[in-house]
Every structure is written in C-alpha cells, then in structure tokens.
Amino acid sequence: MKTLVVLGGGESGVGAALLAKEKGYSVFVSDKGKIKEKYKEVLINNAIAWEEEMHTEAKILNASMVMKSPGIPDKVPLVKLIRSKGIPVVSEIEFAAMFANATIVGITGSNGKTTTASLTHHILKQELNVGLAGNIGDSFAKQVLQKNYQNYVLEISSFQLDDIIKFKPHIAVITNITPDHLDRYDYKFENYIASKFRIVENQTEDDFLIYDADDEVIVKHLENNPVKSTLLPFSLTKRIENGVFLENNNIKITVNNSEFIMPTTGLTLEGKHNVKNAMAASTVAHLLKIRKQTIRESLENFQGVEHRLENVLKINKVQYINDSKATNVNATYFALESMDAPTVWIVGGVDKGNNYEELFPFVNEKVKAIICLGADNEKLINTFGNMVDVIVETQYMSEAVKIAYKIAEIGDNVLLSPACASFDLFENYEDRGRQFKDAVRNL
Predict the structure, then answer these.
(1) Is a pLDDT exceeding 90 seen at residue 297?
(2) 204 known ligand binder
(3) Which one of 39, 66, 90 terminates a domain?
(4) pLDDT over 80 (residue 140)
C-alpha cells in the first residue's frame, strides 16, 4: 500500500489527507505545531492518523511520498533528510492535480494574484463548472475529492510551485514579479524569479502563458529562458499583435485573430493595476470561449477582494480603506498610487528586507501623516521621519485607528497598507484587516 505523509495539518494538508485516503493511500499527518481543532475533528472523523507538536522520523521516512505545507522551507533538516532518502516531496497542488481531470488555470505573481484569480473565477462561473482554490478558499485537494469540477482557477504561490514535478496548467498567468520572500530564496532575486516561472516548465505549445509585458523582470527572463507555451502578453503602454493592450481607454484583446473590446470606464475596480488584472482575467475567459457579453457584465459587477483596497466606511467625510493584504512594498505602491486625496497611512509589521525608495514620490505627494504599527518601527521612522510632519508609532490597531481619526480632516483618506507581513502583532493579514475594520466601526 502506498503511504502518504502530510507535513502540516492546515487547510491544504488536511485536504490532501482526505483525497489520499479516498485514493487508497495509507495516510499520516504530522505537524510540528498545534493542529487547529476544526482540522483535528476532520482527521478523527475520517480515521486518519496524526500527530502534533512533533515529527516522528521513523514514521515519516516510511513514506512513499511526502506532501509538505508551503510554509515549511526546504532548508529544514527533516526535509533534507526526507529528500536524501529519495522520497519524493510534493506540494498539495502537485498531489491534487494527479487526480483532477480538469482544465487548470494557474495564476501566480508577487501581487494581484488574488484579485486576478477571484475575478477570473467570477467571470468563468457564469458559464462553466469551475472551482477556485490554491492559496485561496477551500483546498484544491478537498475540492477535487468533493466537487470534482471540470475547471479550476488556482492562485499559486512560489512556495507551492517549489514542490511541483509534473503539474501543468493549460493557462498560466504571471501578474508581475517584484522582490518578495527573499528570505526563503537565499536573498537572491533570480531564485525567486525562477520559482515563479516553474508554473510554465511543463507547458507545451498547446498551452498558454499570459503575462505583463510592462514588467521588465518577466520580459527579460523570457528573453533569456524561452518557454514552449503560446505567449499572450498584456500591456498598458505598447501595442500588442497577439495579446492585450490599451487603446483610448479600451482594453483590446486579440487571440488567434478573434477580437474583444472592453471600455475601462465599465470596470468596478479602480487603479492601473486593476486594469491589468482585468486584462489577464478577460484573456483567460476569452480563451475558454466565454461570451463577450458575459465577460463585460462580469467585469462591471465584480465586487473586489476583502483586505485589498477595500472601502470600509466614510466617517465625517473621511474614507477608511483596508489594504491589509499589502504585505510587500510593491502592493503598497499600487495602493498609494491610487489615492486621490491627502492620506493618513498606517504601515508596518514584519519587514522582509523592504526597500521603501519606490514609495518616496507618493509619500511626498499624498501622505500627510504616518502611523507605524509594528513591534519594531525603527526602520520606518528612519526612512520616512523627515518626509511627513506627523509620524507616530503604536502596537495596537484600535489605537492606530483612533490616532488616524484625530489627524484626518474632511476629504482625507485613512489607508491601512502595511507593506509588511503581519505576524508580529496579528495572526495573519486577514486578522489584521478585520481588526482594522472593527476599530473603524467602533469609532
């Protein structure tokens, strides 16, 4: 009997365990931390063996395959040991795809992938049987087991791509590549870029790669490392024969001589980056033969993603905006770029080696006050201290929002866009965003 050992008892791990059991594997789930109660119950109800707060090596090294949670780095001694024994280590994406007889759209990138994946799913579900999974929602494996959709839109992180072997989306999207998570890639940007490009490594000329042709990192990588996939670039600045470009505020898509035009005025999402997200999503829809009218209507009624430039409330004519999902500088760049009023900016958290320079023009032009919300705010204060009249620090969300309320005047914005990870003071970026929204509602 084949044995699957699952390292990490979270959403993806438990989903993979359920699918593996159904497919006749003997399954063992091992988590170095505590497993959440809701996941423990699922394992117990399905008679799947598990352990927490430890890894029993003898049991783990008995596996015919190991599925590891994306949160576990390759440099962990246990992972090195497993690999040294010749046991294949895969991600949940790889494992679930082995059993999904479906058309897969895989979306990766440093920023915009959640919005693009959600928007793509929103369009496709109007006419297709389609699931949304990966880094978002219910695990891919669980959906393959329970729903068995004919199509999937997967939001995929570089960590998930690091452990694929044969995984191949029919349509791949790379939204952009900017330095992020470099701590996991030996602080080498080229390692991170290569990791993102694994999304196309198994593609053939019958498959498609949709990518941002304005992103120099992507364009340069493609020049030096040609791929087999059929390329469909999108751009806000240049005319594109086969792909997507912007002309007189119209998105123009050309694929195999068939054309589709969508005015950007109809988009519900604001900002240049969202025009790009819409370009990528509508190209996928066009390839999968969704009707043009359906694409247009879907782009016009899409509500956006929680914690991504989410308008929370207007109080005393001040707009409070939750962009907690901005966990790196590039995401905050888009947020500040789209501000059209003086802004009180709440920033900070766990710094991943951030370089804040690209934000300077926006901070000088748009930001009237900065509230540093982190366990260690020294770098922020040194970087921005001279640029704004008011810079304060706190370690409590409720206090950050109260300070912002005092500073903001009629017509201003209060923007939570941290540019950092959340783990110093919060459980995750969702927790941070919800605490912000609760604090705003309690003003």
Answers:
(1) yes
(2) no
(3) 90
(4) yes
